Amino acid sequence: MAVRKNPIINTATTLGKLVGFLAVSVLCGVLVAGLMVPAVALTGSAASTSIDAFDKLPGELTSADAAVATKILASDGSLIANLYTQNRQPVGFDQMSPFIKNAVVAIEDSRFYEHGGVDATGIMRALVSTVQGGRQGASTITQQYVNNKIIQGLEAQNKGDLAKIGAAKTVADKLREMKLAIALEKQQSKDQILAGYLNIVNFANGAYGIQAAAQRYFSVDASKLTLVQAATLAGVVNSPSFYDPIAHPDNAKDRRNDVLDKMLAQKMINKKDHDAAVAAPVTLKPKVQPQGCATAAVAPFFCEYVKNLILGDATFGKTVDDRAQALYQGGLTIKTTLDPKAQKIAQDQQNNTTGPNDNRGSAMVSIEPGTGKVLTMAQNFKMSAVAAVGQTSYNFSVGKFDADHNPLGGLGTMGVGSTMKPFTFASWLDDGRSMNTVLNGAKRVYGTDTVWRNSCGTTTGYFDSSLPGSDDLQNDDPNHYYSMSVLNGLVGSINTITFASASQLDFCKIKQMTTEAGIIDGVTGKPLTFDTASKLLGSDSIDPLTMANAFATFANKGVYCKPIAINSITDSQGKQLQVPQSECKQTMKPEVAAGVMYALQRVLSDKARGSGALIQPNVNQDSYNLGAKTGTTNFGVDTWVVGTTSGLATASWFGSPTGEIDKPFHNQNVTINGRPYAQIDGANIAGTAFSNFMNEVAPSYKHEDFPQPPSSMLEEPYVAPPVTQTPNRNNPTSSSKATPPATNGNANTKGNNGNGDSKKKP
């Protein structure tokens, strides 16, 4: 049997609402009687005891800072990109227009400067309105600020779904909110609370806080807001979606006029200004604040590189989620190493490498020897999550992982070709040998009985056309199978000389030389293995940043510096945070580095032999010392120039943008950017970009002469009688396009033959 309700005290009746009002009043007794008024009005020990209970703010108010946008800046302070979940840019109270301060107080809390955090008069008025069947809010600005802080705290803990707003709040929630508001009023001044509120509140369309709102709707700073603009924004906070000036301009105007009426009634403005403002239209000048690296003003892929560095470094938080929160909500100012002037030149060169329908990738990255600072990072493809011609999500300049196996978002699949040869040459010098030692460049057969010395592993591989599926070792053309010095072998990029020298060395020492220069595999992030002899010719996949930094080690007299991309980081309060510093250490003998640079300069300057002689990077050959090496994989799939002055090391790459080596990416008999090529090697497109960039940028950085190698490295030892060239038994005139199968240890998925001889014009 249903229980009958007493119609006299039914809560739907006026009397029932009055009873409810009295019940709430009892629950609020202490607050209404004493704590709702400013603390200075309370006297007596009982009042003091009550106030002391609120002296300490709970952690959710002291630590739950509002989410603030992070800025990534270039080295000169110019903006690269903003990162945020909520576009908020806090400003000081003195950086806010007086109109916005008055307008918000007028419409949201007219007694703000009179109450102590909770307005007893407002609560009574709201309760009476409720009894009469109406609805009127009673939350003060302080209470609203507290509520926003609580929500921010929950969102910071990924618990935003627990936040309560509006009708979802219980009486207990409201009482607790009142208590916190009173506590906050004891800790902060009215102006501090109003500034905090204006910096945290939602103004719709992704704009949080008054500075972001002023920029979003009117393209001005908060300090420049006019009366009309301020009244419009003050009206939004009550219901951001309903009073959205962009989506609902009529609603926004009506609410704006309500704000103006309140300001007039409270004598904040005069009648003349009020009437003029009411008559004014809602005139917006919207400005969208771009978010994310894809919207970067410059260097989007460098921006992504910096983002990934932070997400992968425990310096910035214990977990990836902690680091992401700091990055997107922490209001960080990240000043990077990017040189924006050099970056523009690098990007211009990349934009010129291909036409809009040429499905080839290119990238250029520069690093400063001696500091490890990454100065440029440019590529021809646009950043996009959707793969298509001319757009990609992959950063061509970096590997898939760093040495700690943190993802970098890179492609990392480019074979480096003959740019690997300087490391065999360095090992030769490190072994105490002269670069002018003459070796047999006619030797092309390394049979199955060949033993490759490797004291820290096993190296296999053979080159023998008498065996099924194999071929003799080949150079780029049929005219260089003769005895020559190790130096001329590197200068001319002669494969047979690289193998002749390596056959006398310990492959473990060659591996060690690459490791000491910071080279890691672009796919795995692990050191190279040299488990097959063909890797002498650059069959490993390595990214441009790694190659640029390896050559920087040569230029820096054998001192390796770990790449860095961040100069400084400050938090939202202006406090400097710890950032990783470049770790520099001597990893190879200075005289070995000097010997390599001596040879790399000859690569460019030796008109008769130099594999990079056509690049001509110096308009004035006497302006600065520059050494470089070209590189080309089979069929020109990946082509390179990597070179360095004493102050600027640059890697320029052109090739397959997907890592595939199939025929569509063979660069033979192709037309790129409207120009036909019989074949493309390192000196062509990558070389042109490298040359143009270095001509413009290198003089702005240190460009000292490289030290001379010791005389012992330059001595000409006894030369044996010339050795007759050994022809290819299968095809005496073949070039280096045939590739032994991967099963015999000679080849790899790139099909690399170590080309790089660029003396032939296409």
The CATH architecture of the domain at 92-279 comes to Orthogonal Bundle
Unreliable stretches? 1-24, 30-55, 725-762
Largest sheet data: 5 strands, mixed
Determine the fraction of residues in helical runs and give it as a percent range.
25-40%
Number of strand elements: 20
Assess the beta-strand content as a share of residues.
Answer: 5-15%
CATH topology of the domain at 92-279: Penicillin binding protein transpeptidase fold
Instruction: Write the CATH homologous superfamily of the domain at 92-279.
Output: Biosynthetic peptidoglycan transglycosylase-like
CATH domain class name of the domain at 92-279? Mainly Alpha
Strand order of the largest sheet: 2-1-5-13-14
What is the rounded distance between the termini?
100 Å
- Gross geometry: elongated
Count the DSSP helices.
24
Domain Penicillin-binding protein transpeptidase: 365-637
Domain Glycosyl transferase family: 77-263
Protein name: Glycosyl transferase
GO molecular function, one term: peptidoglycan glycosyltransferase activity
